[in-house]
């Protein structure tokens, strides 16, 4: 998501107002980082807001986009000249226009720092990650099951051996107690 304002610079450097204004303005969203964009003349007045790279992050970005559009602070409002008149924050989701403008510092920055994906591509990547996780968990589960079977066999053999030795000991003691027989001769 990109944020723009005409009044975000102070004495050639960015003030700390970008994150605080952004979070104060829309408290229901949870961005993970706000990056300021600089060009050859200094701060451009533009910031890039990053969200988590999961479904929750996408939801936060879409909620934010909708809220800014409803308030008249979306991309269309910025481009129509509304941003020139005031110092409010304007925000929109970066799209192919923002990424692939050849002579635009914002496009260059987004190309270096971000990754433009369609929702279907994002869903495919998530499904692929989920599949890899399921395969790894299945392998771990099979290894644990194999180890469990091996331990059960070992327990069974040891239990049988212990039972035989206990019966033999009982016979020896019973024979000794019965008649004073030599336990070794049995």
Automatic annotation (TrEMBL):
Domain XS intervals: 27-100
InterPro entries referenced in this protein's UniProt entry, alphabetically: FDM1-5/IDN2, XS_domain, XS_domain_sf
Transmembrane segments: none
GO biological process: gene silencing by siRNA-directed DNA methylation
Signal peptide boundaries: none
Taxonomy, superkingdom: Eukaryota
Protein name: XS domain-containing protein
């Amino acid at each position: 998501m990109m944020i723009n304002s005409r009044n975000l610079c102070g004495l050639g450097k960015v003030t700390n107002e970008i994150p605080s204004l952004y979070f104060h303005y829309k408290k229901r969203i949870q961005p993970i980082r706000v990056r300021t964009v600089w060009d050859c003349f200094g701060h451009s007045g533009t910031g890039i807001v990053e969200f988590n790279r999961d479904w929750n992050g996408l939801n936060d970005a879409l909620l934010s986009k909708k809220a800014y559009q409803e308030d008249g602070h979306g991309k269309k409002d910025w481009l129509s000249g509304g941003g020139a008149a005031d110092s409010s924050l304007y925000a929109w989701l970066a799209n192919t226009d923002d990424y692939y403008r050849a002579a635009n510092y914002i496009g260059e920055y987004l190309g270096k720092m971000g990754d433009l994906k369609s929702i279907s591509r994002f869903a495919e990547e998530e499904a692929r990650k989920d599949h890899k996780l399921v395969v790894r968990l299945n392998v771990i589960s099979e290894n644990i099951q194999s180890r469990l079977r091996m331990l059960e066999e070992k327990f069974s053999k040891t239990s049988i051996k212990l039972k035989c030795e206990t019966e033999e000991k009982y016979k020896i003691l019973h024979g000794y107690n019965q008649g004073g027989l030599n336990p070794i001769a049995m």
